[in-house]
Amino acid sequence: MTSPEPIAPPTWGARVRRIALPVVISFVAVVGSFGAANGQTDRRDGDWFMVVLLLIGSVSLYWLRTHPIPVLWATVGSTLVYVLMQYPYGPMIFAFVIAAFTVIRLGHRLAGWVGIAALYVGHVGGRLILGINEDGVYQVLLVGTCFVVLGFTAELFRAHRDRVTAAARTRREAELRKAGEERLRIAQELHDVVAHHISLINVQASTALHLVDRQPEQAGPALAAIKDASKEALVELRSIVGILRQSDESAPRQPVAGLERLDHLVSRTSRAGLEVHTIVHGDPHPLPTGLDRAAFRIIQESLTNIVRHAKATAATVRIQYGEEALTLQVDDDGQSLTGPPKEGNGIIGMRERATALGGTLTATRTPAGGLRITAHLPL
Length: 379
Known about the structure:
10 helices
């Protein structure tokens, strides 16, 4: 059984409709029943008690949204007493129809069907007990059919309401998932940008401090490299943060990082004291934006790790343009070590980038003991 959803506080328009519904149904029920009595000479004449029964069911509709089940039973009871006392047939059934339909549509399915069955069984059983037999079997079956149609119509509206609610929930979950993926992507971008440039700045600062007293004339290039690295870091950070801006303020922009900036990356890394060689196999061609950015960031993070941890003097970047995949391989000539390399946040982040594109990334040792990063990114 579908669990009913909590009722939200009514708006001004909902309050007006909440008052208008019982007023209109009360008027229609009372006036219509007295009007229908003119052509039903075999029924009891209308009196004050008939009006009370009609108003019980109609006025109770005011609480239909907040207390649907008690309102349903109020309409069941008043309608059943009305029929068994042989008051004129007419619009007295409207309040019950509205209450039963709403109760099922809101998700109280069991209560709605029990209310429908209670009114029908009470109507048929009460007539037999009281000896009221002017209705034939055909009319009894017709009334039962109408009640079943009422219940199934309410079920159709309830099912439609559930589908609309489920679709809205699915869209909301998709939006939240997309927002989470975007936050993860931005976090990876920030990590790669900050880690790379800060690492270069740290290396150059250490070089400048070492030379400033002994060979001050040679400290200038290191300080210039620090200036360039910090400037580019600020530009990239402002570009990324610009994505998060909610106002119309324009943010500094630059082309999305891709393999076309590889030469600049290699040149900047070389100024930090790491000799980088680039080898390209295959026919270079434009790549999808996401793959191009991921390839650049993987190479950038690999070189950053070498600068920070490998104590290497040289690195080799190999790029293989294949028909079905782009293959990247970054080797360094760092310390001659054995055993699998330890995987920190940098390698984990690179692997997440590759996996997000349906690719793979491995970290192994070169024959000389250095670190080798290999990524396969499908086209």
